[in-house]
Amino acid sequence: MSMVSPIHLKVNGQPRSDEVEPRLLLVYYLREVLNLTGTHVGCDTSSCGACVVLVDGKAVKSCTMLAVQADGSEITTIEGLANGSELHPIQEGFKEQHGLQCGFCTPGMIMTALQLLERNPDPNEAEIREALDGNYCRCTGYHNVVKAIQYAAKKMKKEVFHD
Ligand code: FES
Ligand code: FES
C-alpha cells in the first residue's frame, strides 16, 4: 500500500486539498491531479524551464519541487493569468510580437516574465535575456520573445498609470 500525505494549497486562487504520494513532483500534481496541463514537462531535470510556475510569487521550476513541499503555498500557473477571455498583457505580447512558434516553452517563458516584470517593470534587453537564462526555446531564437516582454512591460505600465 502506498503512503500518501495530505496537502492544502491554493492554485490560481482556488483552495485545494488532496492526498498525494510524498514522491509526487509538483509539476505532475498540477498536470495529472489538477489537470492543469498548460505547465509543460520538457526535461524533468531542471534545465528547460517549460515547467515554471509561481509559488508564493516566486518563479519555480515545478519539476524541482515535490507537491508536499508546496503544502500551504499559493501557486499560479499559466491557466491563472487570463481574465476570462481577456489575455494577460504578457500573453498578449507573445501573440502580438510572434513570441512563439511551437509554443511548448511559452507557458514557462510567460511565468518567468511575470516574475521579472513584477520585480522590474522596465527591464532593458539585457535584463530580459538574463531573466530568461533558465528557459530554453528550440524555435524562436529568443528575439521575438524579448520583444513580447518589452510589449508587455509597456502595456503593464500604461495600465498602472491609466493613460
Ligand atoms: S521540465 Fe522542469 S526544467 Fe524542464
Ligand atoms: S516556441 Fe517552440 S520551444 Fe519555444
From TrEMBL:
Record bears the keyword Ion transport: no
Taxonomy, superkingdom: Bacteria
Coiled-coil stretches: none
Family annotation (PROSITE patterns): 2FE2S_FER_2 (PS51085)
Domain named 2Fe-2S ferredoxin-type: residues: 5-81
Keywords from the UniProt entry: 2Fe-2S, Iron, Iron-sulfur, Metal-binding, Oxidoreductase
A Pfam family that the UniProt record links to this protein: Fer2_2
InterPro entries in the cross-refs: 2Fe-2S-bd, 2Fe-2S-bd_dom_sf, 2Fe-2S_ferredoxin-like_sf, 2Fe-2S_ferredoxin-type, Beta-grasp_dom_sf, Diverse_Oxidoreductases
PANTHER family: OXIDOREDUCTASE WITH IRON-SULFUR SUBUNIT
Protein name (record): (2Fe-2S)-binding protein
Natural source organism: Agaribacillus aureus
